[in-house]
Structure formats: structure tokens, C-alpha cells
Amino acid sequence: MEIIAKKLYNDSVIENFRNFKGENIMPKLVFSRHGLSEWNKLNQFTGWADVDLAPEGVEEAKEGGRKIKEAGIEFDVAYTSVLTRAIKTCNYILEESDQLWVPTVKSWRLNERHYGKLQGLNKKETAEKYGDDQVHIWRRSYDVLPPLMEATDEGSAAQDRRYSMLDPRDIPGGENLKVTLERALPFWQDEIAPALKDGKTVLVAAHGNSLRALAKHIEGISDEDIMDLEIPTGQPLVYDLNDDLTVAKKYYL
């Protein structure tokens, strides 16, 4: 009886919350890929390397916030990675939309895909060395890993204090999109999906590949078709969701 009563109470709270926000409000999820970074500008593989936004990226993030304000989207919670370029993008979006007070949760599970030993290398020079086809496979295939970084290598996340609380086995030496999804999915299931099911409007400010991985899950995109999905920097991607979190509508602002 206690469990039933608790469920009825929780359902009532959720319904009251939805009524407060407005009748028939669908769960809304907004993805924002961080603005142009310093290494994006230099055409370098970035991954888990913690680089800052380029000036153009700052403006992209601010413009995204202004578009969100113009669209009248009001967030209840924001999620981002533990990498500077995504955190700053999140902050600029919230500031420009007059929502800097919104609670923000940071998680390594929303980090960019780890590019292993490719991190820091120039993409054009890498293609000249290994061939365009090989670099395309490393960049865009769903389940092919890049050359892996050792925990003792310079620039390894194993040496970074922000990951010191993790089991060393959880710190990657390199990832493909499949592994990125496997890493991000628990955070979706434990944090983001429950917030959406509670009727909250959610911002996820993250990275090209972590957002592609989540989009694959949300939209049911095949392993083959996900290779063609590109999420532009600085353009908010909005999902209007059904109560079961299937996609009712998808559009860019």
C-alpha cells in the first residue's frame, strides 16, 4: 500500500508540475554542440583534450542563446560535459537566454568521443600520411577504433584530476561512436530521460559525437545511417518528444 501511495503522490506531483507549465506541454529536449573551438579552427583532432572556444565559437554559442530566447524556450535543467568548450557554450546559452540561474549538471559521460593517439594531430596532415579513406574510417565509422593512447602517454586523461574519481578501466584510450554511446547511455537513462519524463525542459550542451550518439539512440538511427548525421556547431537542435520519449518533432532554431 505504501508503494502504491507513493506512486500516486509522485504522479500527482508530476501532473501538477505539467499543469503549472501549461496544459499538454510535450517534453522538450534541446541539443547544442559547442561553438567553434581553438582546435576546430586549426583543423586538429580534439576529443578529450580540453581546449577553449575560439572567438567565433563564443559568438556561435551566444547566438544560440539568443535564438532560444526568441523561441521562448525555458529550461528547467541543463547538462554538459566536463570539458571547457562545452561548459562555456552552456553558460553562454543560458546567459543570453536570461536563464543563467538554471541548475547545471556536468558529467564526463557527455564528453566528446576520445580520438586516442589522433588527438592534437592535424586532420589534413594525418590524411596525407595514412590516406583519406583510413582517416574517414577513423572519423566516421560506427565501430572502428582509432589508434589507442596508453595511460602513460602525454595528454592521457588518466593524468587529469577531473577523472581521478573514475575506475581506471572507465578512462578510454580511444573511442568509436559505438563506445561513445555505451558510455553516454547510462547518463541518459539515469539523469536526462527521468527529467524529461517528469515534464522538464532540458538543455544538453555537449559535443558533435556525444550528441550524435544520443541522437542515434533517441531517433533509432541505424549503424550505417549515423555516419551521415552531422550536428552543426552553435545551432540549437530541438526535439519535441512524446511521453514515451519518442520523437514527435525535430527542428533547428
What is this structure's SSE topology?
Layout: H1 2-21, E1 28-33, H2 38-41, H3 55-71, E2 77-80, H4 84-96, E3 104-106, H5 123-130, H6 132-140, H7 177-197, E4 201-206, H8 208-219, E5 237-241, E6 247-252
Parallel strand pairs: 1-4, 2-3, 2-4
Antiparallel strand pairs: 1-5, 5-6
Helix pairs in contact: 3-4, 5-6, 7-8
Tell me what the structure shows:
It is a single chain. By secondary structure, the protein is of the alpha/beta class. It has a domain at 25-115 and 176-252: Phosphoglycerate mutase-like (Rossmann fold). The protein has eight helices and six strands. The chain has a six-stranded mixed beta sheet with strand order 3-2-4-1-5-6. Helix 4 links the parallel strand 2 (77-80) and strand 3 (104-106). Helix 5 (123-130) crosses helix 6 (132-140) and helix 7 (177-197) crosses helix 8. The radius of gyration is 19 Å and the shape is globular.
Keywords:
alpha/beta; 6 strands; 8 helices; disordered N terminus; 253 residues; Rossmann fold; 6-stranded mixed β-sheet
What is the fold named in CATH at topology level of one domain?
Answer: Rossmann fold
Poorly predicted parts? 1-23
Question: What's the overall average pLDDT, rounded?
Answer: 90
Distance between the termini: 47 Å
Which homologous superfamily in CATH is the superfamily of one domain? Phosphoglycerate mutase-like
Radius of gyration from CA coordinates: 19 Å
Oligomer: single chain
State the shape. globular
CATH architect. name of one domain: 3-Layer(aba) Sandwich
Supply the number of helical segments. Answer: 8
InterPro entries: His_Pase_superF_clade-1 (IPR013078), His_PPase_superfam (IPR029033), Phosphogly_mut1 (IPR005952)
Function: Catalyzes the interconversion of 2-phosphoglycerate and 3-phosphoglycerate.
Family: Belongs to the phosphoglycerate mutase family. BPG-dependent PGAM subfamily.
Protein name: 2,3-bisphosphoglycerate-dependent phosphoglycerate mutase
